[in-house]
Structures
1.
Amino acid sequence: MTEIKDTEREIQLFRFRLSVASLFILACFGVLMLRFVWLQAVRYNEYFERAESNRISVVPAVPNRGLIVDRNGVVLARNYSAYTLEITPSKIGRPLETVIDELAKIVDIQPRDRRRFKRQMEESKSFESLPIRTRLTDEEVARFAAQQFRFPGVDIQARLFRQYPLGQTASHMIGYIGRVNKREAERLEESEDAANYRGTDYIGKEGLEKSYERHLHGVTGYDEIEVSAGGRAVRTLSRHAPIPGKNLILSVDIELQKIVEKAFGDRRGALVAIEPETGDILAYVSMPTFDPNLFVDGIDTKSWEELNTSLDKPLLNRPLIGTYPPGSTFKPYMALAALELGKRTPEMAISDPGYFWFGNNKFRDDKEGGHGRVDMYRSIVQSCNTYYYMLGNDLGIDAIHDFMKPFGFGQLTGIDLENERRGVLPSTEWKRKTFKRPELQKWYAGETVSVGIGQGYNSFTPLQLAHAVANLSNNGVVMKPHLVKSVEDPLSKVRELTVPKESYRIPLQPQNIDVVKNAMIGVTKEGTSARSFANAPYVSGGKTGTAQAAAMSKTVKYEASRIAERLRDHSLYIAFAPADKPKIALAVIVENAGFGAAAAAPIARLAIDYYLLGKRPDEPVAKVEGSTEAATQPAPAPVPAPVPAPASSAPPVPPNKPSSAAPAAPAPAAPAPTAPAATPPAMTTGRRAP
């Protein structure tokens, strides 16, 4: 039976299907059109930027680091360009040691280069490019370029390097730069300057390089480079030039610095010289020193261990964090306190029998038999301990603290270096806060006696000693000490002063200042430093000092020849010149060198001679034999081995015979006194006057 087709129905079904298909296709095109509008109109800017970022690579342009020059324009830190051979560990695709061994056949790679590279790997991320060799020669660059195809992940880069042309000179002051480590990178990423440090591999680590990092770094620029699909550079589209870092114009006279460093020789110590009227630091010496160039590329392990384990502590910034008792250099300030507080007049005199009794305790003078009749002038010129034992007891510890504080003792000076140590200017409040045990928190009157001669808990940095004598010589006008006199814009050459005005003024009576200054002039003319300043064509004021470095038995006398060199007394000297209008004030300490006139005063004379007269020494400093101080030494007595003092800002000692701290580590231990008593234990020594 033949089936009859329903043509009309099939046509309607076909049309329905066609309509559905058309609607579906139309909907698809609609969706495509909407998507097209979304991409090309609504999100045009976003995708345009993405496309451009694939086509254009933004490369940071690191700025030239600012220069550091002394007050006369001598360059102390500069930049130079050189080629480096760098490895990106994540891209080499085979064992690192194998790659380095093969590279060593093409380029000279020493064991120290390998050690430095491994240490940098520990401090960096695997995708960072690290130098295995720096300062390649042209021949080495050519040899590697010919075989570079064998070493994926290894490239030659042109880098700017920092150089310190004077080597070890003034290294503690200038500091150095080094490669950014992980901790520093994280800190930079979180800082507001993160964008400015894109592409920066080196930052200041110590000294002025660190404290003026933001000034020296400059502003990072960038280059927009068109790249191919394979990542190869096609052309430079635009360049936003970096702005070089600012130059630091120091207040330091580097020739004066060299003379003082040479004068120290192989001795340990520090000297800080300041222009009182401005606060300009003229010399900042810490001995021994080190070569900062070792740190620029990353110091090798052997060199680091030598510096870090040396008994001489060459990395210790002595003027900034080394703390020492001031010894007799404290006496001029004690005399001024007595005048200002009405406890003494210049004419008031004592009869010095060579000792001072406090209760049942005998505090001895440095001179057997005493100095006889002593007024204020003679007390400073002859450095009479007995006078200041009595004065300290009369003033009291809190009055001494309050008077000394404005001079900068035990205070942060605000110098433009980081990690300055405060030191210790003792008071009843200080002792109460420092010690935990109640019986140790009480201040005993006997402890004040030794504070009067610059011993006891007194512990100051050489920088503070220099700052104080600058304030005294400047008649109480306080200028903040600073190493950078001005910051210079490298483009406009405009300079901005770092310390444009005085900090404050200490209210002092001019006649009282004149009394103390006159006595300090007497020290250089007829006192303990007369031999060191004999025939000087200028008038200067000064004061010698001697500070203990080891605690001695109470019943013996000090004899340097019987004591190990590192346990001998420190030699100190403070000075200012010319006396009528000082242009230089300084403090110098020579560790374990004995009396102040024997080692410290001659160095001060050399420094002042050069700065005022331009006179250079013809030969190294020699010890001044037969000085006034040496002549006052008592007859030798058997001396047992001394007990080394703890390395802290105020070591434990009996009140009138304190030991000084060797330059302390950055975190000082709290001083621990001997067992407290109503009065200090009986003493037969106390001879650290000159």
Note: Residues 619-687 have pLDDT under 50 and may be disordered.
2.
Amino acid sequence: MKQYNHEITSIEDLNDKLVSEEILAGSNFQSQLIQIFSANNDSEWYLSLGNTIRNVFPTAIIVGATSVGEIINGKMYADTTVIIFSFFENSSLNMFSYECLTGNDSAVGKLLVEDIESLNLDVKGMLLLATPVSNDSAKLFSSITSHNLNYPVFGGGAGDYANMRKTLVFDGKRCYEQGVISVVFSGNTLYIEPFTYLGWHPLSKEMTITEIDNMSVKTIDGIPAFLVYNKYLGVKADENFFMNVLEFPFLIYRNGQVIARVPFFVNENDNSIQFVADIQVGEKFRIGYGNPEMIINESTHIQEKMQDFQPEAIFLYSCICRRFLMQKDVSLETLPLNRIAPAAGFYTFGEFFSNNNYNALLNSTMVAVGFREGAKIEKTSHDELTQTEKSKQISDPYKHQHARILSHLLYFINVTIKELEEQNKVLKSLNEQKNEFLGIAAHDLRNPIGVIQGFSELLEDEIDDEFKVYTVIITKESSKMLNLLNDYLDISKIEAGKLDLVKNDIDYISLVEQNLKMNEFLAQNKKIKIIGDFEIPSLTLSIDNEKIDQVLNNLIGNAIKYSYPESTIIVKVFKEKNQVITQVIDRGQGIPENEIEGIFNPFKQTSTKPTGGENSHGLGLAIVKKIIEGHNGSFGVTSVLGVGSVFYYTLPFVC
């Protein structure tokens, strides 16, 4: 077997390569595989290359894919075209190509395996190229590997430099923007050995996938998925989203292996994130970051294994994340492989890897595949990667130091995260004990205080002398105490994760109207007017009506407390996209800007005081926030000191 790797910049350049002595000699081999990986996503470029190559190799298998970086003789190139000429002396090649329209991924995978099995070949391996941006490559790959294949599968997903979702694969005569290309290798003397490794470290706390829709993750720990990247990395939902997150994939522990999943696009309507590989509900993950030192160390292990395999050619399929992370140092993991055998390939939008019992559609990895015809030969001193060669790579102690600095920073971050997680466990345990104590105390106190309130109300009706004022005070204060204890019970349940929602389909507008009527009575003492402003006359939502009624009581009650007498409160309800927004607008005192952020924390109160001397204990807004979040909604406030406040919350609406 022989392999020659060339960079091509024009058809004239290709013609020059095709008439070279070493390439022309390839026509004497039994089989020829010619791979084209290019930054150019114009189908005419591939068709021109294919036609030119067939003039010299009319029976060659020609395949290709768009790339986001090219690897030629172990070195990374950008914005060019690599053509890999692989010549096999005693092996046979068969190519299969299919259009793969949306929804047909599993069926195409099944058809591919059936077509291969119909040939009754002694298959030694399968090269797979696909378009993961426009297809569900996870379903395709799962369908292929579900047949318990006894040979390895390897390859990559076509990429796109501009990330405009235009990728394609090429079968020598046709280009597919939604397609699958497979090359099957067979031969009695052919040996194929694939290797893969990751090199990414976890950075964030552990989180859980809570809702998905096909290849999109909708929620993480119950909140919109994009908000995780926005919170921890400050990433925006714009055209640069992919470039900003590609080196921070999800790291998922699955089937005894750590796999990575890279976000590609964000849906600005619902803040979901689209991937090109499968993710499952309930899977736990951490946001990860590549460790350059770990990547280089693991690449050394792969080089040693590849050296032992004694390949005559090496195919490389490496994720764009590695190129983005390592920058100019990315060739440090691929160039040493070229000292073992001619090595070439491309940077991908996902890697295929199946060998023995390990089947996975991968992200952020490198897949290196060794090919050899014939048995191994006895090692000589020339075959080994000598210590002299290795020492040359590191002879300059100041070279590539940014990678070492990054590694030390990652180590520091990981140790810090572990310390914080241990401290968080202690705090969580103490918080649970506090919640349990509050719950028990509130529960045990509620009954006797209820009795006190009941007797004081009876005494109010029976006493007409000067002691009546004392019974009124007892009734009023015991009522305050009962309300406070009920809030204590609510907050302790919520913080213990015991917020039980009983959702039913409710006419939300009717619920709000009923609540306004009740609160209008309470507002009469301060001559405050409450106005309902509803965009639509009726609207059915799946909610816990008692809990949402509690939310409205709290927000409108607060508006009454902090509004000036004879002012107006407006309760506005309207739809926006797939959300129903409720606003409680007052013309009260407003909240100082530096105090707004903390008002949703339990027991937190602002410096602003109720205008009528009303009581406030600082638990209501914390309860409201948890109830709304339990409905997969959001809650917030805008306020101007001296002008008033707008408290608002959203509830999901399904058309």
Note: The mean pLDDT is 86.
